[in-house]
Amino acid sequence: MQRLIEFLLKFRDYLVLVFLTLISNLFILSNQNEQLNFLRASAFGFFAGAEEAFSYFNRYFEALRTADDLRKENMLLSEEVYRLRTYRIENLQLKKEIGLSTETGFRSVPASIIHTSIFGSDNTITITAGSEDGVRVNNLVRNSAGVIGRVVLVDTHYSLVQLMISHQFKMGAKIQRTNTEGLVTWNGLAPTHVNLNNVVQTANVEKGDPVVTSKNSTFAPEGIPVGYVDSVFVDPKQLFKTVRIRTAADFTRINHVYVTIPEKTDSSLIRLEAKRNEEKP
After folding, report:
1. 240-264 pLDDT, tens per residue?
2. CATH code of residue 146
3. Residue 138 domain-assigned (yes or no)
4. Do residues 258 and 239 lie in contact, with contact meaning Cβ atoms separated by under 8 Å?
């Protein structure tokens, strides 16, 4: 107790100053006088401007660090592009030798996202590409990471895209390592995972296996990344096992996408889709 009294006596001047400052600020903040409001607004504008000036320097140094990271990433991507170009030339040469077509069969239309809804059971995004860009219903939508969804509604300049994390979404896919076929669906639990259903019990599936679109999909070109095997659920009483996939695309951070448009439409797929639409009530 004696030490506390000595401390208070020793620093009484500072303590009184702090106390009076707090009381003064309290009176200023509680007073709604027009002059004080003007003073508060002026002070707010001054400090906000000063903060913006200081933040400029922070953004500058952050931009330097980002630029350095981008240069490193650009170097790695350049090396990868060079290797991919080499593989493509070899692939085209082999196709010519065995008489296969060298056409890709589809093109990509870039688009921005202007609205996102990912907190329901039927999650969608609205993109800035429509019928004038050649977009049609059931075109695949992807980004640089992998599959995003498919187009379900088309306007002149905009399209509605049903995301892969939607209860109504279904797409053929396969385990890339073993070519094991399955059907991609979403169980509604997490926006980071989908399921690969109808995978036979005897299929060799390992954690980390890449999953890509298969040729059995009615709207997606073969080989587009879907995600990676996260876990496998096996029920001995069932004929199939369920494979849980972590999606390659992060649906909470997508800003730009590409619509994959077939250059040559398969008439058999059109007839199949028309038949399905006629069977719907």
Report:
1. 888 999 999 998 888 889 999 886 5
2. 2.40.10.340
3. yes
4. no
pTM of the model: 0.59
Q: Kindly state the DSSP code that residue 69 receives in the 8-state scheme.
A: H
Structure letter (DSSP) for residue 48: H
Identify whether 262 is part of a domain: yes
DSSP strand pairing (240-247 vs 193-200):
antiparallel
pLDDT digits (tens, 9 = 90+) for 19-68: 778 877 766 666 666 666 666 666 656 666 666 566 666 667 777 777 87
Instruction: Give pLDDT tens digits for 161-189.
Output: 999 999 999 999 999 999 999 999 998 88
Q: Is residue 85 part of a domain?
A: no
Q: How confident is residue 16, by pLDDT bands cut at 50, 70 and 90?
A: confident
Dihedral of CA 260/266/272/275: which sign?
A: positive
Secondary element (H or E) of residue 210: strand 210-213
- Any idea of the CA torsion for 230, 232, 233, 239, to the nearest 10 degrees? 140
Q: How many structural domains are present in the chain?
A: 1
8 Å CB contact between 152 and 161: yes
Q: Is the dihedral of CA 7, 11, 16, 18 positive or negative?
A: negative
* Domain membership flag for residue 124: yes
Structural domain that includes position 177: 106-279
